[in-house]
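#help-structures

NK: newbie question. if I give both the sequence and a SMILES, will the prediction place the ligand too? trying with flavin-adenine dinucleotide
OV: yes, paste both and it writes out the complex. here, I ran yours:
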Amino acid sequence: MDPLTRAAALVVPPHAPELASILHEVRAFCRARVDAARIDREARIDHDLLAAIAEQGWFGLTVPEAHGGIGLSLSSATEVIAELAAHDGSLGTCVGLHSGLAMHALLHEASPALRERYLPAIAAGRRVLAFAATEPNAGSDIASVRTTLTREGDVYRLRGTKCYVTNGGIAGLVTVLARSPGLGGARAGHTLVLVDPRWPGVQRGVEEKKLGLKGSSTITIDLDDVVVPDDHVLGSVSKGLEHAHHALEWGRTFMAAGCLGAARYAVDAAAAHVATRAQFGRPLIEFPLVRLSIAEMRAEVRAIERTLALVCAHDDLAIPSTVVKLLASEGAFRVVDRALQLFGGAGFIEDTGIARRLRDVRVTRIFEGANDVLRLSLASAALAWPIDTLTATHPELGATLSAVRRARGFRMFQDQVLQANLADAIVALFAATALAREEDDVDKLARGIQLERAREALQRAAAPADPEREALVARVAAR
Amino acid sequence: MIIRRLRPDLTGKIGDGDRLRDDLGLDSLHSMELFSEVTEKYEVDIEVEHLQDVRTVGDVVSFLETVLV
Ligand SMILES: Cc1cc2nc3c(=O)[nH]c(=O)nc-3n(C[C@H](O)[C@H](O)[C@H](O)COP(=O)(O)OP(=O)(O)OC[C@H]3O[C@@H](n4cnc5c(N)ncnc54)[C@H](O)[C@@H]3O)c2cc1C
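OV: that's the protein plus ligand as structure tokens.
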């Protein structure tokens, strides 16, 4: 079934009954215990706070109950991460990456014995998880990693350097992506392995100094001839890239939840501010431009909420997770930026807290797939997009998409600008589908905005090529 | 050849039996670009669904043979 029909047919399942009480506990805990300004200032989440979170069981959100976790569904777990992130981005990132990106291969690819061995300690927060794919020379082009897994005698050996490892400094287990040339009969295969940072040859670097998410640990890890036991290979030898892609799909869904939390916080803070701050003898909220801002911010948050809920109802997350990562990271950045604007000068001052939010949310457009690179991979969905379904509800959009497809077909993969425009259209159409029931005014406004974005993106995609302009761009870029 | 341009760091010979991902290290973005250039060069049109079975260099060649006859 095509993605849109599938999306429209999916029923968003209700949350687990225990979710409401967990969210209530998280909120109360964060209000009492989490000092986001201090985490930012000290550039660390202190050990006592991590221990208290472990005590609450929140490192076990996605660990099955049989292994001592809470065993939440994807949709419930991401709601908890959104709540944590609404209080502090670093905390949301730490627990979100642990529960999402870094947990996936252990849950789905590890042997039963390995799961049995580690999951209880992971759920209890005694072993925090990290995921190491990126290297100094391999970021977006993740297949080009140089860290190498070889077979020597009856053991595997791992050599290389991983950088920007989130949770690296506090991790008790790290999933590492390595090239494994020749292993499993694949010349250019990759393999995922689970590494205990206490093993000989594993060396952790110092904490990076970052623009935002300062409390979240980010380090380089050197792997110098690390002996990896056979049973610590996750999934199949030589299929590591596929496993890593699945982990990233899950991870991006959790990251979108973190963005949602930040955006929710920003809109609430801005709404409270403009209700009380008066200029020209009136509260700011009485000015039409301010009202427009607040309404559009609420609509943006709602689009992320509904899209995330719909994405979580999918089994195959490849396209949906890319959609929601793009929507949520771009949307959250815009919302936080608009909130800062509404705070005026105070927004620029650290004490207000919005400046920190802006710094924290910035990286979500970069990590777990830089947004431009994700747009390229999403563009192929435009070729398979259900024209009939689209034409039935929005004839004009259907006609434009079908014209682009006829004119460019498969050749669109040589035109990045076209691909990016098509990806933007896909994101907006997916969000509009998630909002289709228009349950209230916010949904209605949000859907209108998404359809407008889809229309604009498709019009850009359908615009005839302008070789003169392209040549001009090429000359200016080359200066 | 197109594959070498997409993956300049590739060493060794490219054979018919080489798998695009496992042996040549082409990810999905590379593969789309490869097919796009192949279709342009041979002036054929293809549907995304037809590409699901194309996994090796030999598959690309035989795929072209079927659409070009
Ligand atoms: C705070 C932080 C935490 C992180 N945590 C982790 C982690 O836990 N584990 C991990 O493995 N990695 C992690 N990363 C790494 C992150 O995933 C990478 O930074 C990201 O994938 C981008 O790779 P890069 O930095 O090498 O950028 P590059 O690949 O060099 O890309 C830079 C820019 O170039 C452009 N670009 C690149 N390729 C293309 C293309 N094909 N077409 C058009 N434009 C392109 C895009 O604009 C892109 O933003 C983290 C990074 C940060 C900053």
